[in-house]
Design a protein that fits this description.
The protein is mainly beta. It has three domains: 167 residues, Acid Proteases (Cathepsin D, subunit A, domain 1, Beta Barrel), CATH 2.40.70; 118 residues, Cathepsin D, subunit A, domain 1, CATH 2.40.70; 118 residues, PDZ domain (Pdz3 Domain). It contains six helices and 32 strands. GO terms for molecular function: peptidase activity. Keywords: Hydrolase, Membrane, Protease, Transmembrane, Transmembrane helix.
C-alpha cells in the first residue's frame, strides 16, 4: 500500500481547509478537438474560488480549479452520485492537523472532459471519508479538485468578473498587445507555480516573499512566519477544517503587498499555526500562498509551458479588503419543507383544493394567494469566533439561521450571506434564529477587530 504526504493548503472563506499531496506522474493530458484552437468555459465564482463543470467517465460533476494541486482529487460523492471508477488501488493520505491518515484510492485510465477539452488517460485520487464533505460550507456541490493536469495542457485566461475561462492550444497561441498588462515569471516546484511578491519586513523595508500561486485559496494571503512581517494587530480565528483536524491561526492586515507595478493596500492576511503547516515547511521552500482574494482583482493569463503569468487590473482591483466581521461560519445542513406564498389577481374566494385563498380589494379585484410547499436548505452555525459580535449576541454552534435582515435565509445563497457578513463595518445584522428549540430574534453590528 502506497503512502502519501499532503503538503499544501486549501482554504475557503467558509472555513474549509484541505492539504493536497505532491505526485510526479506522466500522462498525455487534455487536448482540444483537431483544428480547434480555443474554447470558452463558464464558471461560478464562489467567494474567490473558480468552480467549473467537469465530466468524469460520463458523469457530470463540479470541481475547484486549483493551481496549488499537482493531481486530481475526487471527494464528497453523495449516495445519489454514481461514478464509474476504473483500475483502482488503495493508498493512504496524511493531512495537516491532529488527525490520523485517511484511506483513499488511486484510479487510472479515466476519461475527463472540461468544455471541449478531453483527457482519455487521467489519474484520479478518490477519498470516500464522509466527514470530508466540503459542499456544505460552499453551499453548492463540489466533488473534487483539478489543477496541474489542466493548466499544463493549455494557456488559461481567467476573468473573475465575467466568470469566463478561455483555454488556448499552446501550439497555436499568439500573445496580443495588451495595454496595462505585465508579465511575471513563475518558478515551479513539484508542478506548482510560485511568484515573488514584495511585503514590508519587520524593519518596514520591502522584501521579496516567495509565494505559491494558489487559486484554491479563497483568502488573499497566507504567510508562514508572522515574525518576519511588519504587522502589529492580530485576532485569533478558526481558519478551516482540515483533512486531519481543525486549523487555527491569526488574522491581520498587511500595509501593502506589491507585484511589479501593481500595489495593494490594507490586505487581509492569515498566519496559520505552525503545527498545521509543518508538512509544507518541510517539503517546500516558500513563505506562504497568495490566493483568490488577490487573483480575482486581475484578468490573468497563465502559461505553464513558458512559465509566465500575465496580469491586468480588472474592476475588482480597488475593492476594499474585508474579513468576516460577524464571527459566524455557516454551513448547509440538510433540507427542510417551507411554504412559498405568491399573490395573483383572481376571481374566486376559495379554491376546491384548499390551497388558494383570496381577499377583495377596494375596487372589487380579488387577490389570490397560492401556497406552494418546497424543499429549501437549512443553514446551521458551524463555528463562532470567541468575543465576536455574534458570540456576544449569544449565538452558539448548532443554531439554525431562519431569517437574515428580514428575508428567509433560504432565499440567499450561502456565499451571499458570507459576503454580507464581510460587507461593511458598522452594518447592523438582524437574524431570526432557532436555538435550543426556541425561535428568537437577535441583532449585532459588524465591527472591525483590527
Amino acid at each position: 500500500m502506497h503512502f502519501l504526504n499532503y503538503s499544501r493548503v486549501f482554504l475557503i472563506f467558509f472555513g474549509i481547509y484541505i492539504g493536497c499531496f505532491n505526485l510526479l506522474h506522466s500522462q498525455e493530458g487534455f487536448n482540444l478537438p483537431k483544428n480547434q484552437k480555443r474554447d470558452k468555459i463558464s464558471f461560478k465564482n464562489i467567494n474567490n474560488l473558480v468552480i467549473i463543470p467537469v465530466e468524469v467517465n460520463g458523469t457530470s460533476l463540479s470541481f475547484l480549479l486549483d493551481t496549488g494541486v499537482s493531481s486530481t482529487i475526487i471527494f464528497s460523492l453523495g449516495e445519489k452520485d454514481s461514478l464509474e471508477i476504473r483500475n483502482t488501488k488503495p493508498v493512504k493520505i496524511r493531512g495537516m492537523g491532529d488527525g490520523e491518515v485517511i484511506d483513499a484510492f488511486k484510479s487510472s485510465n479515466n476519461t475527463v472532459k472540461i468544455g471541449d477539452a478531453i483527457d482519455t488517460n487521467h489519474d484520479l485520487y478518490l477519498i470516500f471519508d464522509k466527514a470530508l464533505n466540503f459542499s456544505p460550507r460552499m453551499g453548492i456541490p463540489v466533488h473534487g479538485i483539478i489543477g496541474y493536469d489542466f493548466f499544463n495542457s493549455f494557456v488559461v485566461k481567467t476573468n473573475y468578473v465575467s466568470e469566463k475561462i478561455i483555454i488556448y492550444d499552446p501550439d497555436n497561441y499568439r500573445k496580443r498587445r495588451c495595454g496595462g498588462c505585465q508579465d511575471f515569471d513563475m518558478e515551479f516546484h513539484k508542478n506548482k507555480p510560485y511568484i515573488d511578491f514584495t511585503i514590508p519586513s519587520v524593519n518596514s523595508e520591502k522584501n521579496s516573499s516567495h509565494l505559491l500561486l494558489d487559486t484554491g485559496l479563497s483568502d488573499s494571503v497566507w504567510l508562514f512566519d508572522e515574525n518576519s512581517y511588519n504587522v502589529e494587530d492580530y485576532f485569533d480565528d478558526f481558519l478551516g477544517l482540515g483533512l486531519s483536524g481543525d486549523i487555527y491561526g491569526k488574522r491581520s492586515k498587511l500595509d501593502i503587498l506589491g507585484i511589479g507595478k501593481f500595489s495593494l493596500e490594507n490586505v487581509t492576511v492569515a498566519f496559520p499555526k505552525k503545527d498545521a503547516i509543518e508538512a509544507a515547511l518541510k517539503h517546500e521552500k516558500r513563505d506562504g500562498s497568495v490566493g483568490g482574494g488577490i487573483i480575482k482583482r486581475f484578468i490573468s493569463i497563465i502559461d505553464y509551458q513558458k512559465k509566465t503569468i500575465t496580469l491586468k487590473k480588472n474592476k475588482n482591483f480597488k475593492d476594499e479588503f474585508f474579513y468576516n466581521m460577524s464571527g459566524l461560519t455557516l454551513e448547509h445542513n440538510g433540507m427542510k419543507v417551507v411554504k412559498n406564498e405568491k399573490k395573483r389577481v383572481g376571481s374566486s374566494d376559495y379554491s376546491l383544493d384548499g390551497q388558494k385563498f383570496s381577499g377583495r380589494t377596494g375596487n372589487g379585484v380579488s387577490l389570490v394567494t397560492d401556497i406552494e410547499l418546497v424543499l429549501a436548505p437549512r443553514f446551521i452555525v458551524a463555528d463562532v469566533r470567541k468575543n465576536s459580535p455574534a458570540d456576544l449576541a449569544g449565538i452558539v454552534v448548532g443554531t439554525e439561521i431562519l431569517k437574515v435582515n428580514g428575508k428567509a435565509a433560504h432565499s440567499y445563497k450561502l456565499y451571499e450571506i458570507a459576503k454580507l457578513f464581510s460587507s461593511k463595518s458598522g452594518k447592523t445584522i438582524s437574524l431570526q434564529i432557532q436555538q435550543y428549540g426556541f425561535i428568537s430574534k437577535v441583532k449585532f453590528i459588524l465591527k472591525k477587530v483590527i
